[in-house]
Design goal:
Length: about 240
């Protein structure tokens, strides 16, 4: 199976080279795509060097409006254009341990989407402090309630998708510009009828670099959830009327 591991980066100069090394150590058969948003710390230049050194590394330099969601959409589009049969999304900061890659990719023989989950038996959310941990726990409860879905870790950005899922969703129609893309992609997969399996991961806080998370991102994510539900309900009504 042709697998592309997509890593959005913003100021990950201290992580990206070691991450590439670890990704290929645990999953030598994959290709890796770095989607950099013109990071001021020179992540993009390091990515260019990695591309020159290793034909399995690809880089996408985004220059215009930055955002985790916009970068994700561009990366997914690139991966599909390249011919990926499966795409894995992961963060660059080692919160997502590359050692879980074989489980995520292997799980695609049993489900259309395999989600690295902190909240199933064997999973954990380590070292982030009570505030960030509580935000994640509450966000998950809120998302489950508003979207009416039974997923334990709706905000985990470490997951694998079969190509068919991304084609059916049509990544160009996704509306999140920021990290809410994580919930949107998950919800769209479920609405399109694809199966989602959660496998345990141990999430650890980043050791190097700084998080992009802030109040604005949190509020945007909060507001995006009812908007996604509303759009889905409107679509359902439209189909009922037409059907
Ligand atoms: N391309 C791109 N990547 C981003 C952006 N914001 C965050 N990221 C990446 O998304 C991943 C998760 O971001 P992070 O700052 O660790 O957020 P946190 O894990 O929620 O604290 C990391 O790989 C970041 O480098 C962005 O605006 N553009
Ligand atoms: Mg992080």
């Amino acid at each position: 199976m042709k697998v592309m591991v997509m890593v959005p980066t913003y100021n990950e100069a201290e992580n990206i080279e070691r991450l590439a090394h670890e990704v290929f150590r645990h999953a030598p058969e994959v290709e890796m795509l770095i989607v950099d948003d013109n990071s001021p710390d020179g992540t993009g230049r390091i990515a260019d060097r990695l591309v020159a050194e290793n034909p399995r590394v690809h880089v996408l330099h985004r220059k215009k409006m930055r955002g985790r969601g916009l970068a994700g959409i561009a990366g997914l589009r690139y991966a599909l254009g390249w011919g990926a049969e499966a795409v894995v999304e992961m963060d660059a900061d080692f919160s997502h341990d590359p050692k879980h890659l074989p489980q995520l990719i292997g799980g695609l023989s049993r489900a259309d989407v395999v989600l690295g989950s902190r909240f199933v038996p064997g999973g954990a959310d380590m070292g982030r402090g009570w505030l960030r941990h509580s935000i994640t726990v509450l966000a998950n409860r809120y998302i489950r309630l508003v979207l009416g879905i039974g997923i334990q870790d709706c905000t985990s950005g470490y997951r694998a998708f079969r190509r068919e899922v991304l084609e059916a969703i049509d990544v160009d129609t996704l509306i999140s510009r920021g990290p809410a893309i994580v919930q949107e992609l998950l919800y769209s997969s479920l609405l399109s009828g694809f199966s989602v399996m959660e496998v345990p991961i141990v999430f650890v806080d980043r050791q190097r670099g700084v998080s992009s998370f802030n109040l604005r991102i949190m509020l945007e994510g909060f507001l995006m959830v009812p908007r996604l539900r509303w759009l889905a309900e409107a679509e359902r009504w439209r189909e009922l009327r037409i059907g």
